[in-house]
Design a protein that fits this description.
The complex is a heterotrimer of chains A (about 200), B (about 650) and C (about 325). Chain A is mainly alpha-helical. Chain A is built from five helices and one strand, in the order E-H-H-H-H-H. In chain A, about 70% of the residues lie in helices and about 5% in strands. Helix content of chain C is about 35%, strand content about 20%. Classes of the chains: A mainly alpha (about 200), B mainly alpha (about 650), C alpha+beta (about 325). Chains in contact: A-B, B-C. The interface between B and C is large, with 85 and 86 residues.
């Protein structure tokens, strides 16, 4: 082996960073791309099946209801506030405020996930009625698994913050947790428009 | 940006004495050591342990798939043979294809990436070691599941492509196709995890100074393919795990024409994944070739930029070809023409790569060692597959050749010639790095000749058989068809392949225990992986290597520059900036952990249980939660402070 | 006859010409690449100079650039030529005939149903696994599936086309040489995909016309007592649940119609020659010949079987 020459020292570099500099942020981004792309492919398939029907929704199938989905959409927008605040407090290592905002965030994420149950039935069809029902249920169902992951992540993180003092990297995780939530909300907007509003238009 | 900004030139400029290196290494040995014994094996998170495991398992799958192939060839050796009945034959050819595509070819290429990408970019570990272990265990659950099913006579039997409606609930009742659909889920999860891991390792853990234009071509290929996996695998996740799975278990109608579903939708979805899949196997194999050619021609490769661009354009076009698997379906002819054009265009970057390697060999003095022989075997065989591929791109010709033995010949020329031959070359080339021992050269040459002859004798006659009308996936044929003699030739060729693989196996086992000791850089090659011992220590490099060129070990003639200052009292890796690879922060790497295995078993319960009862899905998911919590808890309790944060208002000093 | 190498229609001829050209040009390219490979590796063996890891001389580099660029450009040109050739062949094949004899093909697991379209329903003929066509005129096929995906392929006459549930596909060709051409299902369709063959019998118009006219007639009723007994066996032993015989109560299409079964050269979708012994073997135990086939073994006594086969022998 060749002899080594020391060309520099990295001991002074930080051990915790936020955002795109940190590894976990990239892992979160990877999840988003994979899940977003899966949802996109399902939406394309939904539109592909549209060609097989004379009307959309098919005959004798009512339009999806809009009350519950719209309420939940508004709830999702509102939820971005605690998401943002918990991330901001984490970046300032303000443990008290992180705890406070994570509790608010957890409550609202759980609430959104619970409302999702009625949101599924607001499709006004069943998955085994016809291909239209199958497609709509699959898309909304897959997004529900994102919500479930958000619940596990946010509630778990909240618990950890109350159980003990945490190392700096958990503050980074708090920031990434909000980052992932913004994605869950953002990806829902086109789904809401296509699956719930769309059948009234095309 | 000036070069002084790009290079991390900090004051200390001292040559390290051997004692200093040894002292540092002893401290690192303590902190990076895995747990002892069987428990240590279950909890390993070192990318090399996982990579080695992956390589051994995928090779076992190559043998299993090969044995199934031998059964098929024996059945088809003569007309109306009775070695396998139609029911067994359909399981065998389905599991052969599924094994080779999902359990051998794709994972073996990602396994090479998992083992070598961190070493080649000068990192101490892969970006997400525990996820990496989880990916392996998930894959392993899939392997066990498929083969237990096959032995229990519930092996999938509708082909590795599982076309609906044949694979749908009406025409495939029972659980055979469910086994296939869930197996695909396991593989796609493992592949996606490996892909994200490789991407982040390449983006964030490169050796300081290794800007993207100094990235080894092996790593470029792995990076490009990882992106392809990220965009291809979700298609089969949507298609098989969701649509087909739901149609089969809860009576949804994605593919049921009677309720507005669509049988062709499956083909679009499947081939949108399935065609890139071929390049997911092929591009990493091309990545193996460049270092082999460089090393044995004793020349730097000609056309680095052209090779990188070829990789990227191939990946791009690979997503625009899927309809050429559907030329015989009733889809509009104009659309087909576009796919013909794209299918032909993709031959250009591949051609350019072969020309660049030939030019490199021409400029140098080829030394015909076994790795290079396999590269030559690759060119000999693969070019035939490439040319038959261009033929198949023609809609008119494809309508004759599609779904016949001509395509069987083509795809095996491409996959064995373009995938397995470079892979064997890579085994001979990198075996010394993994094991510290050389493979035997004489047995290697015997293996090479038997393999190249075997492949060509097996598959060349199939071109003729296909055009003489022999369709694929038939368990037998009548004597009056006249296909008997060429089938016999093909079968004899298949036995030759089997013999060559046995020679390789003997060579590998003998050399692992008793081969010639290799040393750090037995081939006098140029990449960073050769800058550490063979096999490398758990932390790969005692000091973080600094990269000043594309061929660090050839261009730094006297001393290799390194950085010091990573802590030796905890597992620490150096994270660098995405484009220029400037040192950015010190990341704490996780300790060995049982949770990846636990979570993979929960995943197995969720998906396998889901075949039988939706309640098992709930149970599996509920059991997942403590696993996720355990992962986080382990990160917290194993953490060794103090933390350095560079935000001025940051005060927290923890644990 | 069953081979794309022996085209018997203008359509298959075009494709064969395309194939031979691509083979010739592709083969030449392969030879050139292999010759280059052997030259750059073997011809310079033993003249191993010192390692030159740092640089390649400029003159060599320029030569390499020229050669790689030249080879790359040649690749592009050859591909462009293939593309034009392919498009022209594709264009010729896509010219659908204005008026043509139309045959509706339905794929079943594992046999082929063929119905000859005619404005007069009484002249419509439905047969199975043996498709007669007139030579020298275009014949159009409308392809549908009754269950899973199949693919209709007679390589001497044209390429294949898939039969997909929920879709209608079309295919046409014009046989220019009289003969019997074998075809086989090309899309994996389950257990007996291997034994789902059919024959295309191309014959001059007059002969075809005669066959068509005879086919539209019901067969003459049985004459002797054995045949009558055989017919009773057919109608009472479950055969009629799946099969059709014109002029009788048997009118089901689960299995191939048997109205003129004796006019066909093979039985069981090309699996067996149509002989008395094979018929008996097939009826007695079809699962031994095509395991998984939809036809169950029919439990018959010896005299019943003999009478049944006697009766079937009259269905010419």
């Amino acid at each position: 082996m060749k002899p080594l020459r020391v060309a520099g020292n990295v001991a002074e570099l930080p051990s915790t960073v936020f955002g795109a500099r940190s590894l976990m942020w990239w892992a979160t981004l990877g999840m988003m791309v994979i899940e977003g792309w899966t949802l996109a492919l399902l939406v394309v398939s939904y539109l592909y099946l549209r060609q097989n029907f004379a009307s959309w929704p098919p005959l004798r199938t009512p339009h999806p209801s809009l009350v519950v989905p719209t309420t939940n959409l508004v709830l999702m927008f509102v939820s971005c506030v605690p998401a943002y605040m918990s991330a901001r407090s984490a970046k300032q290592f303000d443990t008290v405020r992180v705890r406070r905002w994570l509790v608010v965030f957890s409550i609202i994420v759980v609430a959104i996930t619970v409302v999702r149950w009625w949101e599924l039935w607001a499709l006004n069809t069943r998955w085994d009625t016809n291909a239209y029902g199958s497609a709509a249920w699959t898309i909304v169902g897959l997004h529900t698994t994102l919500l479930a992951l958000d619940v596990a992540d946010t509630v778990g993180l909240t618990l950890l913050f109350f159980i003990r003092e945490l190392p700096a990297k958990m503050y980074t995780d708090t920031n990434d947790n909000s980052f992932y939530w913004y994605f869950s909300v953002a990806v829902w907007i086109p789904i809401y428009l296509i699956v719930y509003v769309g059948p009234r238009i095309f | 940006m000036t070069s002084s900004q790009r290079e991390p030139m900090l004051p200390a400029e001292t040559t390290l004495s051997e004692e200093e290196v040894a002292r540092e290494a002893a401290a690192l040995d303590r902190v990076w050591a895995g747990r002892p014994g069987f428990w240590g094996w279950l909890t390993a998170v070192d990318h090399k342990s996982i990579g080695k495991r992956y390589l051994v398992t995928t090779f076992a799958m190559f043998l299993a798939g090969g044995i199934l192939a031998a059964f098929m060839r024996t059945q088809l050796m003569r007309p109306e043979n009775t070695v396998l009945g139609p029911d067994r034959y359909n399981q065998v050819f389905t599991v052969h294809g599924t094994t080779m595509m999902f359990l051998f070819a794709v994972p073996v290429m990602t396994a090479m990436g998992i083992y070598f990408v961190p070493l080649m970019v000068g990192a101490r570990n892969i970006a997400f070691p525990r996820a990496n272990a989880f990916g392996y265990w998930t894959y392993f659950v899939g392997v066990v599941f498929l083969y237990v099913s096959l032995i229990a006579n519930t092996g999938p039997d509708t082909g590795w492509f599982a076309y609906v409606p044949l694979s749908g609930p009406q025409y495939s009742p029972g659980h055979r196709v469910d086994v296939w659909a869930q197996l695909v889920t396991f593989t796609e999860i493992a592949a996606l995890i490996a892909a994200v891991n490789v991407i982040v390792t390449v983006f964030k853990l490169r050796s300081p100074g290794m800007s993207l234009n100094r990235l080894p071509l092996f790593v470029w290929a792995q990076l490009v393919v990882s992106f392809m996996i990220v965009f291809a695998m979700p298609a089969v996740a949507a298609g098989s795990t969701l649509m087909l799975g739901l149609d089969r278990t809860v009576n949804s109608h994605w593919f049921n024409p009677a309720e507005g579903g669509d049988a062709l939708l499956w083909q679009h979805i499947f081939w949108f994944f399935g065609h890139p899949e071929v390049y997911i196997i092929f591009l990493p194999a091309l990545g193996f070739i460049t270092p082999i050619v460089e090393t044995f021609a004793r020349r730097k490769v000609f056309g680095y930029t052209a090779l990188v661009m070829s990789n990227i354009t191939t990946a791009f076009f690979a997503f625009g070809l899927w309809v050429h698997h559907m030329f015989a379906t009733p889809i509009p002819e104009l659309g087909q023409s576009l796919f013909t054009a794209a299918s032909m265009v993709i031959a250009i970057p591949t051609g350019v790569q072969i020309f660049c390697w030939l030019a490199t060999l021409w400029a140098g003095r080829a030394e015909l060692r076994v790795p290079l022989l396999f590269v030559l075997g690759f060119i000999f065989t693969f070019v035939i597959g490439g040319i038959s591929g261009v033929m198949l791109a023609s809609v008119a010709f494809d309508k004759q050749a599609h779904d016949t033995f001509f395509v069987v010949a083509h795809l095996h020329y491409v996959l064995l010639g373009g995938g397995v031959m470079p892979l064997f070359g890579a085994f001979y080339f990198w075996f010394p790095k993994i094991t510290g021992r050389m493979l035997d050269e004489t047995l290697g040459k015997l293996h090479f000749w038997l393999f190249v002859i075997g492949v060509n004798v097996t598959f060349f006659p199939m071109h003729v058989l296909g055009l003489e009308g022999m369709p694929r996936r038939v368990y037998t044929y009548l004597e009056s068809t006249g296909w008997g003699s060429l089938n016999l030739v093909a079968t004899l060729g298949a036995y030759t392949i089997a013999l060559s693989v046995i020679v390789f196996l003997v060579n590998a086992i003998r050399s692992w225990w008793g081969g010639e000791v290799a040393g750090a850089n037995p081939w006098n090659s140029s990449g960073l992986e050769w800058a550490t011992t063979s096999p490398p220590p758990p932390y790969n490099f005692v000091h973080v290597p600094v990269t000043t060129s594309r061929h660090p070990l050839w261009d730094t003639t006297v001393e290799l520059p390194v950085l010091s200052g990573l802590r030796t009292d905890r597992r620490e890796v150096l994270v660098t900036t995405t484009f220029d690879a400037r040192p950015d922060y010190r990341h704490e790497d996780p300790a060995p952990s049982i949770w990846p295995l636990y979570l993979a078993l929960c995943m197995g319960l969720t998906f396998i249980g889901g075949i039988f009862s939706p309640y098992l899905v709930v149970v599996g998911l509920a059991l997942t939660l403590p696993g996720l919590f355990g992962l986080a808890w382990q990160s917290i309790t194993n953490h060794r402070g103090p933390d350095h944060v560079d935000a001025p208002q940051a005060l927290a000093e923890t644990a | 006859m069953h081979s794309a190498f022996a085209p018997a229609s203008p359509q298959a001829h075009l494709v064969a010409t395309l194939w031979w050209w691509m083979l010739g040009v592709g083969g030449a390219i392969w030879l050139a690449v292999i010759a280059t490979m052997l030259y750059v590796t073997l011809a310079r063996r033993g003249r191993r100079g010192p390692d030159d890891l740092q640089h390649v001389p400029d003159a060599t580099r320029r030569r390499m650039e020229r050669v790689v660029l030249g080879a790359g450009s040649l690749t592009v040109l050859v591909l462009a030529a293939f593309l034009v050739f392919d498009f022209s062949v594709g264009h010729a094949l896509a010219q659908h005939p204005q008026r043509a004899l139309t045959i509706d093909i339905t794929g079943h697991q594992w046999w082929w149903e063929a119905e000859y379209e005619d404005p007069d329903p009484s002249k419509r003929l439905t047969t199975a696994n043996e498709i007669h066509v007139p030579t020298g005129e275009p014949v159009q096929f409308k392809l549908r599936s009754a269950d899973v995906i199949h693919s209709f392929w007679a390589p001497n006459l044209n390429g294949k086309k898939d039969l997909i549930p929920g879709y209608l596909s079309t295919l046409w060709f014009e046989a220019d040489t009289a003969g019997v051409y074998r075809g086989q299902c090309a899309e994996f369709c389950g257990l007996q995909h291997a034994k789902m063959a059919f024959y295309v019998v191309a014959e001059p118009r007059a002969k075809f016309q005669a066959w068509l006219a005879a086919g539209a007639q019901s067969p003459p009723p049985p004459t002797d007592s054995t045949q009558l007994y055989g017919q009773r066996v057919f109608l009472s032993s479950g055969c009629a649940v799946c099969h059709t015989i014109g002029g009788t109560a048997a009118q089901a299409f689960v299995g191939p119609p048997l109205t003129h079964v004796m006019s066909r050269a093979t039985i069981a979708a090309g699996a067996l020659a149509n002989t008395r012994a094979n018929l008996m073997a097939w009826i007695t135990n079809p699962q031994a010949i095509k395991p998984g086939a939809r036809m169950p073994a029919v439990p018959l006594t010896g005299p019943q079987l003999a009478a049944l086969v006697d009766y079937l022998g009259t269905l010419k």
